[in-house]
Design brief:
The protein has about 70 residues and is mainly alpha-helical. It is built from three helices and no strands.
Length: about 70
Amino acid sequence: MANISNEELEKILISDESRKYLEEHPSINGRAAKIYASESLNCATNKATYELNKAVKKVNNVMTKLKFTTKTQG
């Protein structure tokens, strides 16, 4: 996992240029919010997929160990 603070991540994801543009054009804030919300949903989906894959790997490792233990004992 990347070791980065929330402040650093925010600077990467939302540049000062973007903030300035939105301040200069307030009428597009609604559209910008929809775009950010859509990307947020994509990020949440990617995170859930990542965590699920991690869990599946752990389960597979446990299953492999159980099969090996059963074969050596039985």
